[in-house]
Amino acid sequence: MKVFISADIEGVACVAHLAEIFAEAGGEYQMARRWMTAEVNAAAQGAFEAGASEVVVADSHSTFRNILPDELHEDVVLVRGTPRPMFMLQGLDASFDAVFFIGYHARHNDPGGVLGHTFMEQVAAIRLNGQTIAEAHFNAAIAGHLGVPVALISGDHVIAEAMRSALPWAERVVVKQGLGVLATQSLTPRKAQARIRAAAQAALARLGEMRPYVLARPIAMEVDFGIGQWAQLSADLPGAELFGEHTVRYAAADMLEAQRILRLMLNLTMNHPRTGGKSY
User: Fold this and answer.
1) What are phi and psi of 163, to 5 degrees?
2) Is residue 54 classed as helix, strand or coil in its secondary structure?
3) What is the rounded distance in angstroms from the CA atom of residue 159 to the CA atom of residue 196?
4) pLDDT band at 274 (very low <50, low <70, confident <90, very high)
C-alpha cells in the first residue's frame, strides 16, 4: 500500500502569523517548520502502522523547502524544491492508494480561516465548474483524475468544514479553530500530532470506503486576480479569455491541463514587477 502526503504549513497546529510561514522571518519560521515536520511524521507513522509499504511526502509550502529532512521519518521519501510540474502533488501517480493533506488551510477571505489564501496572494478566487474552491479541492481533483482518493485532511476548522461535502468519506482532523486571519485557538503540537497519527490509521483501515474526487470534463476554470493587470497578463496564454477586468477563463481538457495553465498564470503574475508577491 502506497500513501502520498502533501504538506502545507498554514494549517499546522499553533501557526497563526506571517512571521511563522516565511523563511526570511527567522526564528518563528524555524519553530513552525519543526511543527510542520512533526505533523508529517505523525501522518507517516500512522500510515506505516496501518500497513503502508511506501510513503512519499511532497513539501508543498512556499519554496517547497520547509520540512526538516534530518527530523523526518527515516522511511519516508521526500520531494522538495521548485519549480516542478505537479506542484503540490509532485510524485503522485496512479500507483498510490491514498493521499493525505496535512497542514491545509482555508480559501482567500474565508471567514475565520487562519492565513487563508488560494495558492498565491495574487489570486482572489478560483472556480472549477462554477464552484469556488480551496487548494484542497483543486489538489483533490488532480488526485481524482489519477484515480487516487484523498483519505485524510488536517488543518483549521474552516477547511475541514469546506471539504465535508467534497470528501465526505475522508478523515478530517481539526487542529485549531480560526479566530481570524492572524489568530487561532489551537491544540498543542503534541496533541495535534497524536490525532493526525490516529486519523491516518483510521483512514487506511477504511480505505475501501474512500472515493476519488472527480470533476466533470472539460474543466471550466475561472481565476479572479486582485489587480486587472495580472488578469491581462494571464489572458495572453493561448486559450485563455479575459472576462471583465479581473477574471480569466480557461476550458481545460482535464485537471492536469488546468494545473499546468494555473501554474503558468501564477508564474506570470508572480514575476511581474507590479506584484511584489510571495508564493504561499
Assistant:
1) -95, 0
2) strand
3) 15
4) low
